[in-house]
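We modelled the chain as a single entity of 245 amino acids. Its sequence is:
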Amino acid sequence: MKVVMVVLCCVFYCSALWADEVTIFASDDYRPVTFRNEQGKEDGIAYALIKHYEQLSGRKVIVDMASWKRSYLLAEKGKGGIIGLSKTKARLEIFDYSEPFYESIVGIVVKKGKEFPFDSVADLKGKLISVTNAASYGDEFDNALAIKLFKVDVNYTSDVRLKKLLYDRVDCAVVSNGERGLDDILKKDPELSNKRAEFAYLNKPLVRDPLYLAFHKSMKMQTFLIEFNRAIKDAKEKGVIPLAR
């Protein structure tokens, strides 16, 4: 009988330990939010936030970085959370969200000499725009795409998007984190590193995009999100992650 009780205790202990491990999916090419650095290690604002949450809570988080498309599809199936997600009307129906932890400034980059007046999504009419797999750039952009106001060329990595722009295969490209984001992409690629003068960043942002951690509603992770919100607040107060600009 004692042996049975010991075995049962071990089973419950292991189950509890496993339950404490949470998987969060993320992009490996979304600077400065989540990415792999020059050494191939996980890095970024959201990664630092997750590590801060682990330190505060004592819970283990498995960070699974891959393409944004893969990360989103797995999160959509309820296999884990996803960090760096923006809100849209459609997503609010299937995901529970944390508080925002960072605001990404999403802008439009063109080839130098091919600038055009840009004040709203309507100004993208007829353009072929290079975008990230499974990314959303706000309801206005998504709705305009749905009615075929413009076309998109979907690519996995940011350097490929800019190379297509450089060689006139697209009219413009969407880049996160403003001009700093553009500079980061160019610096990390040998072919693009000396091409900064060949790109122009249109002054007005496409969208200011608050980013969140989210879980599929079927996972019932509201309690976890409440804990994570405390970590967001603490991380901002302690300078672990930047405040909104």
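As a brief sanity check on the tokenised model: Residues 103-208 form a domain with the D-Maltodextrin-Binding Protein; domain 2 fold (CATH 3.40.190.10). The two ends are 62 Å apart (CA to CA).
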